[in-house]
């Protein structure tokens, strides 16, 4: 197993320590947890926003904690849902009196544990709402998931909800706009190679030397097609056509675009994918308001990418454009 | 070869197209070249700054073009120095009447081709200065290099020189502060796996399943030790001790720190490396003014990392902290 780690069982603990050590002015750790919150949390009078999930998707979600996005992020073990008590600690740490929104990726364990945490917090008198992100159009139902999986589009939900919360909006208003983002969001990914959970010590699935997989999830969940390696343009056409078919964008629609790397894919290749995406969207007279290319939601060292499109209206555009100041997303 | 590309010979051309397509408000391409410049280039009355080199190191250098850093970047073929005529085009495109500084990584081909381009531009009456970055303390002389190699510390030179240029400083002043940064800069890297130049179709070197290499260059140039895989803490101790030994930092020194991923290394692992670096620097009473963790200077899909330290005085601190607005570096 080729990893720069110490002991496999310590990776999350040590990662959180090293992350906090890098950004002490921005972030703090809730003691004895793997919960990362804004240095100034809780922000009084503002809805708090918490996300999280299994580790191995860095910079998600700790990299998106800061003004204009998340108030807190919970890091479970690698590819493992955080426990309800950890999520509960995060909710308490960010509650500034206006309630807390949980942004949950659609995995059965995440949904269950975040819900249990919400119940614990509500018993303390904290108002809690939740939204479930299910942007991955590849498959209905999957390993760990009933319905569609939540993947890189989750970052746009962080951004939209975070910007809304900064305006002083109520928990209901922040929840409503987060759901609006989710309804207008669609992603799909592919993998060239698998990733290895440190504690497992071997790849989560195997894929032939001349093969790729279309529709793979961010934990290596099965996709829809195992095929020989195709060109970047062909792969892009496959992913984008499924995303566009789902969103049914009319000409003159305005969108935000994310080309997300899964961990080991060079930026060079993501730019080559974007070349094709930009060309197709231009031909379809779809206006790309802003393009985001890089690693936002990874799968440890998986090679591959996902394409996400968020349909924008005036409100979502304004919220996407609003200031954000986090480690991995600055505007 | 597991890459999301179309034809190996088209990767740089298509990458530049896809990159420019993503950021049309920020950047423009000099027609018929692989030169990327600020959308508002040339900026009149400001020293222009140009860097570049072989491709395969993304986001270097196009990702650092923008206000507060570079005015232009030249992308050669993968791991191949850009030709003098391409560099010459970049110089002409960013010259705003105050002269142009070339920031060159120390590789024989780069130095030669940037110097030839400088001569062409000087014949046109453009004042050109150059600095050569040689921050890699691993080895003296190497494949492609006389003296020490230039690696991720180059990004700090971009930042310092770029900020100085924004103040309206003269070419001599910008050059002087860039050289000051270089004199206070030291890096060292390691590799767990090699990278594959698309046109070659196979890895540039081989490394055993249980091996790593200390001191590897960003083109896979040999390091100083091939060893069995060690723990993140042991590897960090080896790299950091060599960097610290070179810089001879006194207690209470102030530094900027970069933990750079080489392409396939997850952020999780870079954070674990930073945990150890932060601990050691704290013990040595060295103040880390700011930590940068991520992919700044990659080697296509190489797994591995480098550690860079820049010793700061008041002037360098102020220039490092100054505003910058580029794709890959925002302050």
Automatic annotation (TrEMBL), chains A, B:
Q: Does the keyword Cell division apply?
A: no
The EC number of this protein is 2.7.1.121
Pathway of action? Polyol metabolism; glycerol degradation
Superkingdom assignment: Bacteria
Q: What class of enzyme is it?
A: transferase
**Reactions the enzyme catalyzes:** dihydroxyacetone + phosphoenolpyruvate = dihydroxyacetone phosphate + pyruvate
| GO molecular function terms listed in the Swiss-Prot or TrEMBL record | glycerone kinase activity; phosphoenolpyruvate-glycerone phosphotransferase activity
* Ranges where the DhaK domain occurs: 7-329
Q: Name one GO biological process term.
A: glycerol catabolic process
InterPro entries in the record: DhaK_1 (IPR012736), DhaK_dom (IPR004006), Dihydroxyacetone_Kinase (IPR050861)
- Alphabetical UniProt keywords: Glycerol metabolism, Kinase, Transferase
- What does UniProt give as GO cellular component? cytosol
Q: Is Glycoprotein among this UniProt entry's keywords?
A: no
Subunit and interaction comment: Homodimer. The dihydroxyacetone kinase complex is composed of a homodimer of DhaM, a homodimer of DhaK and the subunit DhaL.
Q: What does this protein do?
A: Dihydroxyacetone binding subunit of the dihydroxyacetone kinase, which is responsible for the phosphoenolpyruvate (PEP)-dependent phosphorylation of dihydroxyacetone via a phosphoryl group transfer from DhaL-ATP.
Q: What is this protein called?
A: phosphoenolpyruvate--glycerone phosphotransferase
Question: What is the organism of origin for this protein?
Answer: Bacillus canaveralius
């Amino acid at each position: 197993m080729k990893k720069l780690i110490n002991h496999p069982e310590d990776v999350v603990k040590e990662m959180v320590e090293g992350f906090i050590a890098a950004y002490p002015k921005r972030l703090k750790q809730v003691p004895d947890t793997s919960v990362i919150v804004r240095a100034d949390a809780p922000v009084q009078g503002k809805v708090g926003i918490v996300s999280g999930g299994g580790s191995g998707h860095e910079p998600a979600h700790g990299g998106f904690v800061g003004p204009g996005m998340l108030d807190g992020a919970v890091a479970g073990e690698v590819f493992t849902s955080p426990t309800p008590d950890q999520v509960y600690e995060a909710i308490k740490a960010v509650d500034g009196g206006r309630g807390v929104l949980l942004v949950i990726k659609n995995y059965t364990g995440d949904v269950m544990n975040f819900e249990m945490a919400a119940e614990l917090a509500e018993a303390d008198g904290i108002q809690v709402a939740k939204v479930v992100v299910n942007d991955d159009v590849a498959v209905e139902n999957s390993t760990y998931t009933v319905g569609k999986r939540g993947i890189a589009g989750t970052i746009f939900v962080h951004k939209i909800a975070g910007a809304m919360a900064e305006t002083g909006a109520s928990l209901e208003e922040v929840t409503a706009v987060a759901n609006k983002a989710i309804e207008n969001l669609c992603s799909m990914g592919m993998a060239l190679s698998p990733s290895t959970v440190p504690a497992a010590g071997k790849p989560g699935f195997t894929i032939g030397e001349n093969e790729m997989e279309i529709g793979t999830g961010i934990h290596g969940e099965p996709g829809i097609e195992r095929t020989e390696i195709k060109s970047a343009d062909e792969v892009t056409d496959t992913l984008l056509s499924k995303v566009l078919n789902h969103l049914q964008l009319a000409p003159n629609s305005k969108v935000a675009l994310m080309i997300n790397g899964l961990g080991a894919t060079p930026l060079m290749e993501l730019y080559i994918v974007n070349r094709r995406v930009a060309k197709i969207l231009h031909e379809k007279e779809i206006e790309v308001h802003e393009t985001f290319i890089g690693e936002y939601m990874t799968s440890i060292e998986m090679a591959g990418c996902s394409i996400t499109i968020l349909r924008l209206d005036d409100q979502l555009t304004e919220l996407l454009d609003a200031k954000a100041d986090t480690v991995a997303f600055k505007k």
